[in-house]
Amino acid sequence: DKANMFPLIQRCCFNTPFKLQKFTGPSLLLHGKNKRAWSCLALRLQGHARPLSASLSLKPAAPYTAKLQAFHTSLPVFKKKTPAESEAESQESLGSLKDCPKPALYLSLGGLIPFVAVPLAMAMQGTYYPELAFAQVTYGAVTASFLGGMRWGFALPENSPAKPDWLNLANGTVPPLLAWQALFFKDVTQGVAMLMVALGIALHYDISLLSTYPRWFKVLRVVGTVVMVLSLLATVALKAFLEREQSDDRKIQQN
């Protein structure tokens, strides 16, 4: 068995020429008695034999790598916005506001004066005036009605990208109806809450549903709505704060 295994080991572990492979197991065993024959065999093996590690050539497995990459199922890495990208977006918004036509910009800013003037006057005088607060809510209802009617004016022309269908025209009537209901509340706080809902719905319609509006108009609408809502909230906060102070002063005077 040992004589039969030696040729197999010789061919597997060494890349020897055909001449050396002629030395089979029995012949090597016969030559094993002669030290000189063993030394000659060792010299010939050292000159012609190569180890298995040297005979093997590692070839690049490009096709197999491509197949493995095809089955790559790692989770996608979501790219986070860098500070430079956020600054670029803010600059783009400011650029869009600068692109606004001057009549539209100045008239929109002028239309915000009644909203800002009411809480500012109350804060400067330190007195809450219910008449001024109701006038502010009334002006807000008129503004919401104007924003709703603006959708009709945008959808009615023949060359308009918005069709005069049920969706566009019905959405134009929702803000005025909500603003009209705000005038029926005796408490200004409830009226302000209803009015803010009407202004928020009108902003949602202009930003989301009508994507054909120019970017400068959308930025202008966002800025205007934020100023209106903050002014209404300031009036409600002054009402709660100043009325409490006035009631405390009355109690002190009575005592």
TrEMBL record:
Instruction: Spell out the InterPro entries in the cross-references.
Output: DUF3429
Write down a Pfam family by its short name.
Answer: DUF3429
Transmembrane feature ranges? 104-122, 134-154, 192-213, 219-242
Keywords, comma-separated and alphabetical: Membrane, Transmembrane, Transmembrane helix
Tell me the domain of life. Eukaryota
Q: Show the PANTHER family listed in the entry.
A: TRANSMEMBRANE PROTEIN 69
**Protein name as it appears in the record:** TMM69 protein
